[in-house]
Amino acid sequence: SDIPEWLYSKAVEAELENWKGHYEHCKVNDVPPGANVVGSHIVYRIKKDEKDRYRFKARLVVHGNEDSEKYDVRKDAATAHLTTIRLILSMAACYGFQLGQIDIKAAYFQSGPIRRRIYVRPPRELLLFRTLWLLLSLPYGIVEAGRQWQLASDDFLQSIGLVAICSLPQCFMLKRKGKLELLVGKIVDDFLVAGNPSALRWFSQKINSRFTVGAETYTPQPLRFNEIGRASC
Question: How many Cβ atoms sit within 10 Å of the Cβ of residue 61?
Fold first, then answer.
């Protein structure tokens, strides 16, 4: 590999920062017999950010398949369908809205405390062979993490006045004085938003006050029909 060792270390340090406060260290001998213990490992990848710069990233992945209770918990979670995305693009063209995408950093960790006791064996690279981590929050890979994030983010949207569109999964709208101002589609941990500039600024302020946001990108100009084809309203 042409990637220097220090870059691996830097990527792991950045990922461990995301995990801070979401687990407690436990000695192996203090963990009760029969405890729910899962393994973990680190994966690496090169990713392009919103400014087209390449970054070398590490992701600590837990082995959710080893979860002995995975069949006993509710795990279904909705995400925006293609129909939802097409509707938001079409309505943005109809109303002359700007589009935006908001990424939530380590979203599942921000969905609230875990409701079960799960221990994680740290990755081998960390050389913590006599230590387990007791999870305090849900990481990606634990089966109910997606559902808990969906419920937490749904509650947030509804608490600030957005209304779910029942016929379209994970699609929400905001009306003021009978006028449509904002549409939000929730695609797992990304928000696709369309609205007038003041509504987008308002929503950005609200979501940044509730969650740690990774990146926000917006179109510089309102969307027009010729940018997406003849959208139907």
Answer: 15
